[in-house]
Design a protein that fits this description.
Structural class: mainly alpha
Distance between the termini: 23 Å
Shape: rod-shaped
Helix content: over 70%
Order of helices and strands: HHH
Strand content: under 5%
Radius of gyration: 18 Å
Length: about 70
Amino acid sequence: MQLTTEEQERTAYADGNTALADAFSRIIDLEQERILLRQCIRDAADMIDCEKTDEHVDWHAGAAKLLDDDE
């Protein structure tokens, strides 16, 4: 059975391995940041009407591809 990152962090703290626990904590923080940034990209993509703005068609397509690739 594989432990979640949060469980691994708690286990490392319990074992007194603070360096490893800090690394897991940073991983958790980065994952939360990734989630927030993905939502920002979604929100921005929703604001751009690619049919009305030729300048942003490439950006919109790129954002959609990034969001699809990561899920």
